[in-house]
Prior knowledge:
By secondary structure, the chain is an alpha/beta fold. It contains 3 helices and 5 strands, in the order βαβαβββα. The protein has helices spanning 31-41, 52-63, 109-116, and strands at 2-6, 43-47, 67-69, 86-89, 97-99. The chain has a 5-stranded parallel beta sheet with strand order 3-4-2-1-5, with helices on one face. Helix 1 links the parallel strand 1 (2-6) and strand 2 (43-47).
Amino acid sequence: MTIAVDFDGVIHAYSRGWQDGTIYDEPMPGAIDGLHELMRRDAVFIHTSRDPQAVALWITNRLGITSTWEMEGARPHEFWNDRGRVLVTNRKLPATVYIDDRGLHFDSWEQVMADLVTPESD
């Protein structure tokens, strides 16, 4: 399997939101052990809107996890199946599971549309 993991709010605590692109926070509790466990069983890639190189270096330096990134101008990956390191990309590659702190669970369009209605939009 391939597991996709969002960076901010899932790996990086992101307690102050976007701060000019700076990766300022500590890892989320359990992130290091969780990623190691996922990598033991599956291929893992990190998807982010941040600069993939900066995130990959943060993951390597802060979490001690070998990482790589999609370099600008290089042929992009079509999929990821390497268990020995994580890929950091700003694209969502095919995956069995996407782990994201801001996802909206989909059961049906009726359910999604009801979930999207907020008191402010009434």
